[in-house]
């Protein structure tokens, strides 16, 4: 039955009959639509320039689409035409990782990076035209506890008070939880067998996990190498990408064969590495370092920062990172 429907959907797509596709799939109850049908629906909504609706549909199958370059490409397309370039960049970069050298993807990436660079330049010109005496000191003084450095280094717009977090639909669906209670923090620490850094806990009490605008951390002295994070895991187990969630620290370390040096704090777009709190030097009573563990290079461990707060303040935005050749 579905094979006949999919065949008809393909025929309508070839004939540019996108409304027929939408109408046919919308007649099916939402709980009965599988990944294939939702993908057809999202693509048709994109072609009808109903981009917000397309994003809403794509996000209902976000977990199934994680390893599908077409899912990332199509939702990236919707973000692009809504002028949500940071979100579009993230999705097209992931599409490129999963399906390298696709010409359409590379064209979008080049255009998005150009637009973001232009926006950044305009923003800097505006700030230079209207300097505010003492603005830096004021932002640091008024930032929530544990977030003074984050507020000072982040200039990206966002729904949260600090401007650090990109609270898009994907972040809210996969990462962001309610602020943890002290009891929840203790329970998570007990499961992980590690005491979490005070700066991380303070940050999570303000905004519990999510996708930051600044997602690149430079490594080495050349300034040309960097690692990219997908998001920062929050404290809890409810969301898939939280410390004790389905794709949390224990699960990823055990199934990925990573060394038992601490806690995974950030996941990365590829499956080849993770960012961890490294307790080897500090043990459980001190402040852990932050390290990148490269699974593709025999689990090589590279120190990124002396502590979590230094790691977060060292993250940079996409347009400051050299484009891949």
Which properties best describe this structure?
Serine Threonine Protein Phosphatase 5, Tetratricopeptide repeat; SMI1/KNR4-like; 325 residues; 2 domains
Give an overview in words.
This protein has 325 residues and is of the alpha+beta class. It has 2 domains: 2-112, Tetratricopeptide repeat domain (Serine Threonine Protein Phosphatase 5, Tetratricopeptide repeat), CATH 1.25.40.10; 139-320, SMI1/KNR4-like (3-Layer(aba) Sandwich). It has helices spanning 2-14, 18-26, 35-47, 51-59, 62-65, 69-81, 85-98, 103-129, 135-142, 148-153, 169-174, 182-192, 198-206, 249-256, 308-314; strands at residues 216-219, 225-228, 231-232, 262-267, 273-278, 289-294, 300-305. Mean pLDDT is 84; it is low at 131-159.
Number of domains: 2
Class by alpha and beta content:
alpha+beta
CATH class of the largest domain equals: Alpha Beta
What is the number of beta strands?
7
Q: Helix and strand string, N-terminal first?
A: HHHHHHHHHHHHHEEEHEEEEH
Nearest-integer average pLDDT: 84
Shape: globular
CA-based gyration radius: 21 Å
InterPro entries: Knr4/Smi1-like_dom, Knr4/Smi1-like_sf, TPR-like_helical_dom_sf, TPR_rpt
Pfam families: SMI1_KNR4
Domain Knr4/Smi1-like: 179-314
Protein name: SMI1/KNR4 family protein
């Amino acid at each position: 039955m579905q094979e006949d429907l999919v065949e008809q959907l393909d025929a309508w797509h070839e004939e540019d009959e996108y409304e027929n596709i939408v109408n046919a799939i919308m007649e099916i109850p939402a709980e009965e639509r599988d990944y294939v049908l939702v993908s057809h629906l999202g693509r048709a909504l994109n072609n009808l320039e109903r981009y917000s609706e397309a994003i809403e549909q794509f996000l209902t199958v976000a977990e199934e689409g994680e390893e599908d370059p077409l899912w990332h490409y199509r939702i990236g397309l919707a973000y692009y035409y809504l002028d949500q370039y940071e979100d579009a960049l993230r999705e097209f970069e992931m599409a490129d990782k999963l399906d390298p050298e696709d010409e359409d993807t590379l064209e979008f990436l080049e255009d998005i990076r150009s637009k973001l660079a232009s926006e950044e330049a305009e923003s800097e010109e505006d700030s230079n035209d209207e300097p505010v005496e003492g603005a830096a000191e004021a932002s640091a003084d008024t930032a929530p506890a544990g977030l003074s450095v984050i507020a000072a280094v982040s200039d990206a717009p966002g729904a949260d008070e600090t401007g650090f977090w990109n609270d898009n639909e994907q972040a809210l669906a996969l990462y962001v939880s309610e602020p943890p209670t002290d009891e929840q923090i203790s329970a998570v620490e007990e499961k992980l067998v590690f005491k979490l850094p005070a700066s991380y806990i303070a940050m999570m009490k303000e905004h519990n996990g999510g996708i930051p605008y600044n997602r690149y951390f430079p490594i080495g002295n050349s300034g040309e190498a960097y690692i990219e994070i997908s998001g920062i895991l929050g404290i809890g187990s409810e969301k898939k990408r939280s410390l004790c969630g389905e794709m949390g620290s224990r699960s990823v370390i055990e199934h990925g064969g990573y060394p038992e040096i601490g806690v995974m704090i950030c996941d990365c777009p590829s499956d080849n590495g993770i960012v961890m709190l490294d307790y080897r030097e500090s043990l459980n009573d001190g402040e852990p370092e932050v390290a990148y563990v490269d699974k593709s290079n025999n689990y090589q461990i590279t120190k990124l920062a002396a502590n979590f707060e230094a790691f977060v303040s060292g993250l940079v935005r996409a347009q400051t990172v050299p484009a891949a050749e």
